Fold this sequence. Notes:
By secondary structure, the protein is mainly alpha-helical. It is 76% helix and 1% strand. The protein has 10 helices and 2 strands.
Amino acid sequence: MTLEGSGKWVATVSVLMLWLAVLAPRVAGAEAESLENARFDFAKGDYRAALQKVNKILSNTLQPPQASEKYDILMLRGECQLQLKDRAGAIASFKSAVKSAADLNQVAAAKANALIVERSSMGRYTPSYTSGKQPIDVVATDTRRQAMGVLQADLWSKNKRQIEVALKATTLPPIEKAFVPLAEMYCLELAATGQTKDTGQLMRDLGQQTYQLMRTEITGYARQIEQLNLTANSSGGGNGRWDDGPRGLFSTERNELRNSVMYLEKLRDRATEYRTVAGKLGGNPQRWDAMVLDITDTLALAETLLNN
């Protein structure tokens, strides 16, 4: 490249960089303004225009919304869709907002909105277990909170016995059956009232029960696998000879070990899931992290035995 050509290339690049530097703030400002405009449109009742602006922001691949903004954007999208009678779209948006929530209150609000819309028909929730109640409008915000409270009561009537059994369970399956409806009730109560007087302690008790049962099972499997490790690495012949090699595992022991590995992998997946829930619902995720680590260490020993 000649000196003259090089100078022209540098000049062209400089102009391009200057153009980008000027344009980028305008683009960013336009996106921020679009969100504000969407909120303004929603406030004045122009839900379709608000939805169009929100969809534009979400579909912008060059400048996707910040993680801190995505929750608000998705919640606004769900509200727009609900007002426009797009039930399926509103449910999907509220469920997506759960994944972008930054704290417990945001999780509860998004989850509760998804639940009440999902269990409604034609914009109204009809109580299932609460006698004397008329269908409740879920489109208006105030009556929607009322509907959330009624849905919470309905879920309690439906699952009360199951939850009571779970709190006394000595195995994990009954707890897993009760966990989902109780978590839903927890989110509904928090979103509707800002408190968890009815469900907070139940969630803590069930979480503790789950943790203790899983910890007991993991400890038992860890001891079993350690015993198999000692057995496999003991003297093969048992004749008091220095050159006896390790015994190894018999086929029945290998089958037993494989079954243990399969179950521990399920426990690890469940512990990882509960860790996520604990983080979202204000629990103690660190103890679940420690449990996942313990299971992983035990699985590593089991895999070593199986590969020998």
